[in-house]
Write a structure and sequence with these properties.
2 domains, 5% strand, homohexamer, three-stranded mixed β-sheet, 46% helix, binds calcium ion
Chain lengths: 273, 273, 273, 273, 273, 273
């Protein structure tokens, strides 16, 4: 069960409105790697967690925090939209190209649908959806998604940081950047912990390692014609699990027969000779 | 530019048809973590790669391989659907509950839409979409997504491996498991290479580390009431970057003021007092 | 079965083209609360209606009208796009910032895909989809959705009315506003009729009222820390059904045990201790 | 900012697993009218609320509660999936039609993707998305959506209540039914409060009532050939706002001219004579 | 503007309910090639039509008919769902595998969401969306989509015809098959008419034929290793426009330089050397 | 299995960057009729092809080529984005309306998400999805979709050709136009081949022609009130299959009875009298 305080985790006050930026900031609310994603992802992972104790507790701590980030960004967006020129007409644009540029670049739905507030969509107006998240029950596989999410999230935040010079916005983004740094470290550390606790290894999942095809689990298939792919650590030497030796196959032949689809039921009316 | 051979990378012949399994296997074709995802993701990453040389070459090698995996799985699905009971009617089901169970559990679109072939959808029939992939230009952020994708992919393959006892299907899945093992190792190794080459560090992106809020980049906010979150490596000691010291804040107060949305343009007709 | 006349229900002629406004108006065609939504929603409700007679007849009257609204708005959009600067190039924009603002703010798909016509999408370009509508068979539940749809629709129309000063557009929107007023009244009245006819009560559905948990059907759980939630009619006194007495629980304790997920099948490879 | 307790708002323990029901229950988690919808909808409405005081406080109370409902249902689903036959193969199905029926009717993604846990999707596997919710800033328009949501939600819960005879599941659903009853009453009461406080009237929004086309704001257009649509309260007498008189137009003529689309830019290559 | 009669274009009465088939038939209502698609597609094409006269008139005739097909199929689905076992519980399934197969294979949303009625979704539960249709303004391009839609539609109908032995259902499908035959012929004929009227030629659009690269508009690039692609009419001889001569290039070299992406703005933090 | 060369099929070098155009060009990458669509469509058709030999070989030739078109366009987009003003702030826009127009009209996700590269989305930012393609197994039905796809694709390319004056971009588009011309001819020719080979006829599928309702397979139902629909070839004379005689029914009566939905299970709580 959740409780809520109306105070924000961190301040979210721009020095002045900026409707163009309010559109861009939607990426951090409802984008594939935005705060709705990490909030929902960590909560579903916490609820599905089968390793009670410190893992579950930590996942739910961070999931609860991320929900507050959605709130913080939604509040910032509403404030950036204060006084946005919603009633601008064609005549006004003709006389004022700067106004025209602003109106042209705004997200019309923030006005028409959201009444000057944030929406659960990204910076192109695409709605957030449940396929952005995963909670597989396997913590190594999931924590790797989490490291990735905090990395893409911090990258987008850094890009957005460069697109504004509003001190209030920058102050909030400095907090977001810091939390994304912490969260990358936290998930990297949690992966180490899983391995130290003997719960998971290098390969996810830690299963079927003996059953899988041993001939094909350490070779890089060279199928593009770049000439330097074999110069990386991934093409020779010992792999990061300390157990496999990488090798590079240059333009190898296929191993299978001709692909073909058998005739289906005749009443499916596939064309066949 | 691409070239194609009609031979499969690896054999994909089931010992016998199994329409229920043909539905499940769609997850590896058109699911969020399926082969269409990794194929498209690696290709867009390769095309967007700004680090020419070994990175770009390697990314395009693996992207090209993954396309062949889509083909291999699509072929397997068509073969599993051979002879699927497409003309089964209500009367036949009444007399044969096993047939009924099969018909009830099949993906109707594989027959009605695909004519007994694979579809670009997942095991629940949800179509693949472009939001499943990312190519950000930042290789650390992207390679972390790639490690995650190969981990979720191998996990799903392992689960599917347990849901069949068909020797031909298992043979192919052993190859897929092996490639997923290799690809996890390959991306983990590529991350090490990025760091050894001095191109990226522990935090993605390697920027704004001094500008971000230093007070908040190493503390875990304890916002759920589990009591053991502070017992992991993520809550104390040195972080994986060797530079931050983790600490744990138990039920900390919010730092911001009351959240509030300012009045929008009056012609947006928000209710206000 | 339907018949069609090529005359519009109401006139839809702008005084002059306005491609920026043509984008915004898409919200009323293909938005979540646009005319495609009410047209499809009322038609599916009419077809699924199990209360033959006046309810079904009325629903199909209004559903048929709404289809004509889609046509009216699609026609208006095509007319607003007449002469839109589709061949504008970078050089032209450089020399004419007003033109640039217009080109930047237009919906590129109205030209590239629609050839200067309306699209089944909203003002951010998101396609209309079938999840926007509901036809549950329960008329109270559905009529409440209908009241809501006409309210959101009139709100969006009012906002759009303020974003233009074209007399022809405003004339059409005055008609639309009027129909939305009528349709709000119509569905409110239909809810009264359902209740007068003894078909439905205050709660939807009119069932399981005795079986539901009686302790928890009239209390407001105070889970946010605002201090005034108990000052509304919803927190004390008699509820709108005349049968329940509202009360307010300030920061109540949870009633359930610890949430936990049991171990799944081991071959799903969830991490567990 | 949010806080979380690991205790559930109400108990969620089935007497025994039931994987078929676990699929159906997804509707209440990630369906268009499920708990994710009301949780997100009320939170965005609370954040966007411009009427500080009791309205905002109440909205955030209920939004915070609904998040706990997502948790409660996700927990129930994981428990219903305990021991689900994930490794069932074709051979096993052939010998056991009951098992076959169960396997055929299960949601394969709950195993393959969720590892035996809940997913942010509905009972057909369609992912939740942000277009399910609205927060317009106009409280009358939004509270009407909320009444509708709690009505559809209670209706679906009632239907699901009839599809199980598990005492533990029924106990939880009795709580859900009760909360949906309360929430319908709460929003109905909040609409009365808005009107008593003079903030909104009968029509949403309370604006442009004089500017709209007065000839067309109280007539029902009879466009289907049912003969009894004029027998309801919606076709004659005083409307619910006490100000309009309803009337019925039987098969009225259209008011507009012929619909036509003007020629677009010639370089859009529309076919024209 | 539209008018509606409550009589169906053709009868839609099954001899008996069949909930499994009711799920499959959703493909023809809300599938990518179902009746909602052709209805909406033809209506948008009619509204966007710039060739007034016989083309526009004919398009609107058929679009109006298709709407009636949606109604006919939605009615059939509701009738097939009569008496569907909505309250079936786990216990009942255990004792009756045929019932279990039926319950497992039904679309749960038809009961939970639609209350025993049709939904605007396909046979896998994916909602219909606006991207299924096109109205480009170019009639040749659009009529070719229409021929394709009626072909896929008739194919799916033929497959569904084989999946039932209910005389009432088959009677309706015989009508649908006939209309699809007519509509294929109608659009093929309309393409001939366009060409006879000199409005369009063989290539869509009839423009830029001289400006396009003349070296590359009649050669088949052989990029797969099948050996017989040059044995079709498409690889030699005169093309269907009577103007180009086909030729076949076996494994041709690429014409462009190395693909590469230039460095973006440094503040986008792409990894580069 | 596939192989890849890093050389492009054709050159893709703009003379100078143009971020506004980079957004529009997304339509050809990830739009409904873009290169991802034809690439994936032809590959799935090739894999599902049951007519081995020249048809399958040809389909896979062209599918493989289209993949290279995705690459070519993605490369062009990255080059058009070189130097795009990603760090533009509100202050800069205020002083430079041309810059403002550019920033307002750019796709923000190309910077924030793609780091200055192409995305798998269309020109409105909607992600590509698997429902854009079809591979039904019936080659006549599928080749008709292919003709349509190449027609819509060439039409969009022609429109985009008019929206730029950059010689490098135009050079690439001249190649694309030429390939679309060839591909239209190729599929038209393949349809002729299917018919010459006796594999398919005029109607898809070539089945149930005797069983379908013979009264209704050649009449045009006049349901809109335009007066000239009967003046086309589609309304009289011999149909394109040489076997049916067209006729025109002016405002015909419906053939079916009243539409009605039967009562569902009472526990679905549909409103009924
Ligand atoms: Ca965050
Ligand atoms: Ca793979
Ligand atoms: Ca309307
Ligand atoms: Ca609830
Ligand atoms: Ca039809
Ligand atoms: Ca192409």
């Amino acid at each position: 069960m959740f409780r809520h305080t109306q105070r924000l985790q961190f301040e979210a006050k721009p020095d002045q409105p900026d409707p163009l930026y309010a559109k861009k900031l939607q990426e951090l609310v409802g984008g594939a790697w935005g705060e709705m994603t990490v909030a929902m992802q960590y909560m579903f992972q916490g609820w599905n967690c089968r390793a009670p104790g410190k893992y579950k507790d930590m996942i739910l701590d961070i999931g609860t925090e991320e929900l507050g980030h959605v709130e913080m960004l939604a509040t910032m967006i509403a404030r950036l939209l204060e006084g946005a020129p919603s009633e601008t007409t064609a005549g006004m644009v003709d006389n004022d190209p700067v106004l025209g540029a602003i109106v042209g670049g705004m997200d019309p739905q923030q006005a028409i649908v959201g009444g000057g507030g944030a929406l659960p969509v990204d910076s192109d107006g695409t709605p957030w959806n449940g396929k952005y998240i995963v909670a597989s029950g396997n913590l190594l596989a999931d924590f790797r998604v989490n490291v990735a999410a905090e990395s893409q999230g911090r990258l987008q935040t850094a890009r957005l940081y460069r697109m504004t010079d509003d001190p209030g916005v920058k102050e909030m983004l400095k907090f977001n950047l810091a939390r994304d740094t912490m969260h990358q470290l936290q998930w990297l550390s949690a992966i180490e912990q899983l391995q130290e606790d003997g719960l998971e290894g290098t390969i996810a999942p830690n299963a079927l390692l003996d059953e899988e095809n041993q001939q094909h689990n350490s070779t890089l298939w060279g199928l593009s014609d770049g000439t330097t792919a074999d110069q990386g650590k991934w093409a020779s030497g010992t792999a990061p699990d300390g157990q496999h030796e990488f090798s590079y196959l240059d333009q190898p032949d296929p191993l299978g027969d001709l692909a073909s689809a058998p005739p289906p039921d005749p009443y499916l009316y596939a064309t066949s000779e």
